Protein: Flp pilus assembly protein TadD, contains TPR repeats
Organism: Salipiger pallidus
Amino acid sequence: MRHPILLALCAAGALGLSACDRSIDKDAIDKEFAEVNAIDGSGLNSLMLTAGDPDEAVAYFQRAEGIEPGRIDLMRGLAKSLVRAKRSTEAVSAWQRVTAHEASTAEDSVEYADALIRNNEWPRAEEVLNAVPPTHETYQRYRLEAMIADGNKEWNKADSFYEIAVGLTTKPAPVLNNWGYSKLTRGDYAGAEKLFYETLRHDGSMFTAKNNLVLARGAQGNYTLPVLQMTQTERAELLNTLGLAAVKSGDVEIGKGLLRNAIETHPQHFESAATALAALEG
């Protein structure tokens, strides 16, 4: 039996030679490619899913699946890569193929529902999730269930699903931020503020949560910036958000002052704040 490293080197040598010797046919190259893939197992596949350009990963898995059609790990790799590349329509088709495979799992269906949501196909996503066995309890499943309940304005169900999802992950910041935004859209500003603080406790660098927190405070008539770690640019942007929130609430003069502060704070020209202030003063 040949040593795996020697086999890999032989395969690599054959591939390198093909650039110079055009007499080598494509079938031979494909065979060597398949051998390299078999040696590497899931290692190279995992690397392609987490590193590098998403479109390159798509091309890799398309070629690998063409050589070994029907391998569900390669089909999953292609579907995940299409999601990473933000090619939503293609991702939906790819996940549909995965879920039709005899070796597909409940988690594949959850990933299919996620792709449908990314492609703005909410009713289909709900149908797919409803078919997932209730015993399949994962963070991803409940995160999507919460989002769908939000879209249906089923607030109690949404809160329940968000709470379960938070308990099923060690990195709850994204789902806490979504939950807070849900509360914000419902008009529960105090509840939203609490959740945004909780989000930032887990991930203090999430600017979206900082901005949402300022919106929740502004909606309650609180126009002071929260005590948070922030860069000078972030501070200017948050002051701008707070100023616009004040104007929306009818506190125009306070809003103008906040916009002026934002312009003075920003290390560069803050065009959007300057434009807003000019419109108010004009």
Q: What stands out?
A: The mean pLDDT is 88. The two ends are 83 Å apart (CA to CA).
